[in-house]
Amino acid sequence: MFVDLYAYLTNLPRWHIFAIFLVGYLFYYLMEVVKRPILAVSDGPFKRYLRKHIPILGMKFWPTFWCVESRAQTVFASIIRSNIMPNIEYRREVLAMKDGGQVALDWLESNCDPESPLIIILPGLTGESQAEYIKCLVTAANRIGIRTVVFNNRGLGGLELKTPRLYCASNTDDLAEVIHHVKKTNQHVKIGATGISMGGLILGNYLANYSEESKSILTAAQIISVPWDVNKGSDSIEQPYLNSMLGRHLAGSLCRTVRKYDILRDKKFDWDMDRVLQSKTIKEFDSLFTSKHFGYKNVDAYYAQATLHNKLHKIKVPLLCLSAADDPFQPLDAIPVKAAAKSSHVAIVITARGGHIGFLEGWWPANKDQYMGRLFSQFFEKTLFDEKSEFYRTSQVMMEHNLQTSTSVPNTPVYGSSSSPIRKKSIPF
Predict the structure, then answer these.
(1) Residue 21: which pLDDT band, with cuts at 50, 70 and 90?
(2) pLDDT, tens digit (0-9, with 9 covering 90-100), for 403-420
(3) 164 shares a domain with 128
(4) Where does the AB hydrolase-1 domain lie (predicted)?
């Protein structure tokens, strides 16, 4: 018998090898890749509302069969969306800021009622309104009749940089001005907000730092693929070799952004632009330019201010977050699962796979309606239209629960010691 088995293995037909490999990979895919996402939030009204009204949360996430690796999800998502998402014809509004600068607000209102709800969208590190992931969300919102406005940071979106100031993850002044402007021109509609990657940091910091103001303006918010702990995210993206290649690409994008503006080259500034333009990593760029540009002592002080994982207890706007456990920009152990499990207003959806702003699904992910867009549209459809005021009542109960507990300490449980927070070791990824 052993002789026959040895003879078979040494003369194995190629199609047998292929079949064995395919069966093995299929087993791995079904057992290790396809999983139902974790929902980290306290056992309370927000969790019950999400479970009842957002059906995608109860379904398994089926990543694209041939593209399950995190860096592959990240890269191919960008490539595929770029090829299937045509440029969008926005209505551009140039908003003058109080300090003399300007930002571009790109509106998509076609096929929507003039009084329909709207969502303010913040792109990532060097993204703008024609970025493929932004078009994915804008299109998803438009299909359900929600208007959108994309907030292009200073120096992006094709606008001239009028003052020697750009943007950073910790500074929310520009966003606060934009939100006030949008509210002033849309006083009688419900407003939501979404931030992607670094845009999620800016939005999250606004929600935490302007907690009372934000809850009076915004009905609901969402952040996607946010680097919760900026220090750990920076360390992760510098890991060799594939992660560091993504990091170098983004550092190059940052350098190309600042290279365009002679207004940033004045000798009176603390930075040496020639050295800045040689940056090979995001942290090096932030050390040589961003931290100095915004008056921080060093890059560590900047990252400490920008980080979001320890601020969940300050947020009072219902916030749904989407993160992937394999995001190369943010390791799983940096996602604030325990803090979310004690939070009345912050819920984190964690998929086993998805990369950074990836979340590709299906055999061939050429469908515009991808996982990220479906979660986005389901959440905002139920929170912003809210025809029976069920979400409004839920929000009121959420606030009542929040007021019953002290929020001065990040680790203070929302529902007392009887709550059952999710432990990291219980996450099946």
Answers:
(1) confident
(2) 765 444 444 433 333 333
(3) yes
(4) 117-362
- Which residues belong to the active site? 197, 327, 356
* CATH number of the domain residue 109 falls in: 3.40.50.1820
Same domain? 78 vs 175 = yes
* Residues 107 and 197 reside in one and the same domain: yes
In DSSP notation, 326-391 reads: T-TTS-GGGS-HHHHHT-SSEEEEEESS-TTTT--BSSS---S--HHHHHHHHHHIIIII-TTSHH
Of the pLDDT bands very low, low, confident and very high (cuts 50, 70, 90), residue 1 is: low
**What digits encode the pLDDT tens for the residues 9-18?**
566 676 666 7
What residues make up the domain containing 285? 230-306
Helix (H) or strand (E) holding 49: helix 45-53
Q: Which residue, 177, 238, 236, is CA-closest to 202?
A: 177
Strand partners, 348: 40, 321
Whole-structure pTM value: 0.91
Number of domains in the chain: 2
297-307 pLDDT per residue, tens: 999 999 999 99
